Amino acid sequence: MFLAPMEDVTDPAFRLLCKRFGADRVYTEFVNADALVRDVPSTMRKLHIRDEERPVAIQIYGKDAASMADAARIVESARPDIIDINFGCPVKKVAGKGAGAGLLRDVPRMLEITRAVVDAVQTPVTVKTRLGWDQNSLYLEDGTPFIVDLAERLQDCGIRELAIHGRTRAQMYRDEADWTLIGAVKANPRMHIPIIGNGDVTTPERARECFERYGVDAIMIGRATFGCPWLFAEMKGLPAPRTMAEKVAVLKEHVEAAIKWVGDERKGIIHSRRHFAASPVFKGLPDFRQTRIALLRADTREEVFAIMDRIVETYSDIAGE
Prior knowledge:
- By secondary structure, the chain is of the alpha/beta class.
- The protein folds into two domains: 2-236, TIM Barrel, CATH 3.20.20; 244-315.
- Helix content is 44%, strand content 11%.
- The chain is built from 14 helices and nine strands.
- The protein has helices spanning 12-20, 33-37, 41-44, 65-76, 92-95, 107-120, 146-156, 179-187, 204-214, 231-236, 244-262, 265-278, 289-297, 301-315, and strands spanning 2-3, 26-27, 31-32, 56-61, 82-87, 125-130, 162-165, 195-198, 218-221.
- Helix 13 (289-297) packs antiparallel against helix 14.
- The longest helix is centred in the last third of the chain and has 19 residues, at 244-262.
- The protein is globular, with a radius of gyration of 20 Å.
């Protein structure tokens, strides 16, 4: 079970927490190839990895084969276990400029980039992509699923694994992920590289179903980990925090680690807020709106921790603890 690469989420602080709770592989935030080649400091910083988080993959994106190959060589010097190519990011600032999922509309260029990166480095190269650009592009004229054909062609370029998000670019993160097409890729007898499934895996039961029904070699988990790095432990039957107090203690630990990583208390807290907002720890609590607002407005460690302590004191009994 892998932690998916997510911008402004999978920094070292969060990766190490997920690793501790059982993630089998973690990925960096995705890295702009052009910015790497230009030696932009904030981008270079994303190459910082620690031995404790291995195996770790660094993911790169771009739309030009030469710059992607150059970026891959730079990434290789950081000694990741894997270099992953992002052909799946759907956001406009990436896909709209012909990178990420935008390359689903230009398969020849996608394959050119893939071959260039594979040829440029000794580190294993993998790819993450989506089912297609939109619903109208899910099948070829002969009825073959687009992703089945694309997977074979990417495999022929020399990649070692393929991760597939079960949505089109047009869907963004809406609607339900379609795992049947992921399963079709895995069931293709011409595929011999591992297939990783991604999309809407939020519970241990769903994870088990995806392995058993679709036969994937691994599962990649993204948004469900927000404010819940122990999800991997729950899915694997490992020891995990059970009470609200135990879970809040992990959230505090994440805040501390984020502050240390960012190097500024306020910025570290702001960086952690998406986890407060999405954490299942605080979902469904009655009369919680004002407390949530206060939590998301607090900008010192002392304020954040005091509010979290009050939440535990107020709601532990309601949560059946």
